[in-house]
Every structure is written in C-alpha cells, then in structure tokens.
Amino acid sequence: MKKLILALLAVATVGSASAQKNSFLVYGNAGVNWAKTDNGVNNGTNEGTNWNITPGVGFQFNNHLTVGLQGGYGANKDVTTALNNKNTMTGREWQAGAFFRYTQNLNSTFFFWTQLDLSYVSGKSTNEVINTSGTVTTVTNPAGLNNDMYNGFQAMLMPAIGVNVHKGLALNFGIGGLGYRTVSYDKNPTTINNFGVTFGQQFNFGISKNFGCNCGKSRGHREPGMEHRKHKKMTDEDDE
C-alpha cells in the first residue's frame, strides 16, 4: 500500500504542470446549493435548492491572468410551508458574459485561483400556492408572479483550489463566493437588487484544461547556469 501511494504521488508530480502563458483555457464548473430553515411551529419551514452549470473558454496572457467568455444554465426551487399553506417557487435561468481569472501556483501540483464573472442574465419564475383547509384544497397563482420573465446583470467573485492531474488537465474545488445582481421583471414591473455571500453554503466542482501550454513536455532537471555551461563547452570543442 505504501509503495502504491508513493507511485501515485510520483505520477501526479511528474505528469502535472502549471498552466503557462499564451495558452487556451477550457473549463466547466457545476455547483449545488441546499438550505433548510425552521421558522417555528406557527411559521413552518423554508427549503431551497438550486444548481448550475457554467462552462467557459479563455486565453491565458501570462502565468497569472486569464480573460475569456463564460456562460451557464441553472434552476432553483424554494418551498415554504406554514400552517395550511404551501408556497412553491421555481425558476430557470441562463447567463452569458466575460470572466477574469487570477491564478497563483502553490507548487507543481496545487494552485489557487480567483475568478470574476460579469454576466447578462435572463430567466423565468413561477409561483404556486396550495391552501389546504380541512378537506378543501385550492391552488392559486398570485398575479404578476406566475410565469414571469426577468433579465438583468450580475457579478460573481469566486475563489477555488485547483489540482493538476495530467498534462494541463486540472480538477477545481470551491465553496462559494460573493455575488451581486439586479434583475427586472416583465409582468410585475419590479427591480430586485441582491447581494449574497455563499461561503460554506455552496459546493462547486469543475474540470479545466489548458491547450498549447507544452505541459506534456519533460524538460528534466536543470541547475542555474546550465545553458551557459553547455554553450561554452560547445564553443571550446569548435576551437579544437
């Protein structure tokens, strides 16, 4: 077992390489967020779930800065239960925009990055209220909230840890971030502004790949000044 662990560590160290400048980055992230709140006997409970998928492609100008385009699709569901009422709100949303990523290598295997997403967002929300009183059940859809469309803008700042696994291929892990968004609804002309902190409430997993970074080439170990000594030796041989 000990030999197997050492072998896996050796493969991860030799086969991985940090992303390099003048390379193309392609990534895909997936996130899920779930929360449940107990509001007491009289106020019931609130349960919310949302998920999203956000792919992107960019160009890495140097060893730290990457700029590109990103998009995504997500869905959410919030259920509030109180006494004889059950309110269910669902939504679907897509986004598109630009991203800016700063990467800092920790060693040959691990790296840290922070990404800022600036996006145009558009979506659809629905609301259903079920009122149960005795044996009578009624379903209502409040005016202005049923099948309403919205659009707006959002900014998200997300830190993450990356693990190089093989030739520019990396796994990425995050636990939330900071976000601001403003959206306007169509049927119910209302503008909503939100600022959110999701650290510890959201888990993100992603895969990224750098193309054109020569990550698979093995250059071996070189001491400082090695190239100079090699050039000097070739010059001495030519003089003989």
Question: What can you tell me about this protein's structure?
Answer:
β1 and β2 form a beta hairpin. With 240 residues, this protein is mostly beta strands. Helices cover 12% and strands 62% of the residues. The chain starts with a helix and ends with a helix. Strands 1-2-3-4-5-7-8-11 form an eight-stranded antiparallel barrel. The protein has one domain.
Could you give a quick summary of the protein structure above?
This protein is mostly beta strands.
Characteristics:
disordered N terminus, 240 residues, 62% strand, mainly beta, single chain, 2 helices, 8-stranded antiparallel beta barrel
How does the SSE layout of this entry go?
Blueprint (H helix, E strand, L loop, with lengths): L1 H14 L7 E16 L6 E16 L4 E18 L2 E21 L4 E24 L2 E5 L7 E19 L2 E6 L3 E8 L5 E7 L4 E10 L14 H14 L1
Antiparallel strand pairs: 1-2, 1-11, 2-3, 3-4, 4-5, 5-6, 5-7, 7-8, 7-9, 8-11, 9-10
